[in-house]
Amino acid sequence: MASADNTPGPGGRGHVLLASDRFKGSLSAAAVTRHLAAGLRRVRPDVPVVELPVPSSGDGLAEAAVAAGWRRVEAEVSGPVGRPVRAVLAVERDTAVVDLGEACAPRLLPGGRPRPLTATSLGAGQLLGHALRGGARRIVLALGASAAADGGAGLVQGLGGRLLDAAGRDLPPGGAALRSLHAVDLRGLPDLSRVELVLAGDVTGALLGRAGTPAAAREAGADADAGRDGVRTLDAGLRRWADVAEAAVRRSARDRPGAGAGGGAGFAALALLGATPRPGAGFLLDLLGFAGRARGARLVVTGEGALDTRTLRGRTPAGVARSAARSGTPVVAVTGRRGLTGEQLRRSRIQAVYALADIERDVGRSMRHAGPLLEQLTVAIADEWLP
């Protein structure tokens, strides 16, 4: 079942640290660690288990921080279609983690029906404002999946900015309305001069990308749900938004890495809020205190839905393995399917891989039942690494 070098590490009496990313389409990072913990506690009840989800995509980062011991704070904000939702942010001293998905994730769409032309990131701005009013001086904005392809225009409105048409009227929500944007009024924005705003998650893509579907719209699923005319509408709206916003602050951001993240919320944060992108798992591991939790561990279990060459470019399993290697702690990985050679695994410091595909070949069933299958995998992990 395991691949690569699976020679068990030293027995020891330390804990097992579970530091996994999400299984996209199946389980959040926190859910993956919960299932791994449940399986290990069932087969090795005498071994202490520490859960530390590490969502490199940004999705679920506030939930992960709470799991790591941060204080959970709830606030009522506007959801992607304007209905109120209860959103969670995580707080540790003067640092707050604000998860875009808590306010405008696709899962918050009524009936799951996408509305790419009118969905808004307004609630994310309201959540940022809540963190600021709570005294945060460092805010990590996690830019995961968004139902809104509005380029972060709603986020700016949620913080107190105004988007006006040629008659001086406030624009309605959504990316389509941005075609009528004439001016932005930023006087209502809070003073962020003494606040460090960091963008976390998959913050690599530009706002618009090449000709065709704008990157922000692709991320919000608009290419599949808005149709060709709708995509053209969003493209025009986002281009107008970029033109007006950049002129207002005399700073270009549309082509910066991360501008297209979170349905384009990265653009608004970079252009208008002075944010700094921090891609890769290394930043998240430091933020969540991985080194301290790994100290004294006898085994680290990491993972993600597909372990392949993209993993090696800064995703959670590679970052976890590099960090754990400094203390000589063995690292094994769980995944839906493996796509790395033994040599690639050895170079990445991952000593064994356990794949759902080994016990369930049907991809659909594997995704639907990923939780119980992960618990099954822990039997082999325990047998080989926790004698």
TrEMBL record:
Q: What class of enzyme is it?
A: transferase
Keyword 4Fe-4S assigned? no
GO terms for biological process, alphabetical: organic acid phosphorylation
Enzyme nomenclature, EC number: 2.7.1.-
Task: State the source organism's domain of life.
Answer: Bacteria
Query: Where is the signal peptide, in residue numbers?
Result: none
Select a single GO molecular function from the record's annotations and give it: glycerate kinase activity
> What Pfam families does the record point to?
Gly_kinase (PF02595)
InterPro entries in the cross-refs: Glyc_kinase_flavodox-like_fold, Glycerate_kinase, Glycerate_kinase_RE-like, Glycerate_kinase_sf
- What keywords are annotated for this sequence in UniProt? Kinase, Transferase
UniProt record similarity statement? Belongs to the glycerate kinase type-1 family.
Q: What is this protein called?
A: Glycerate kinase
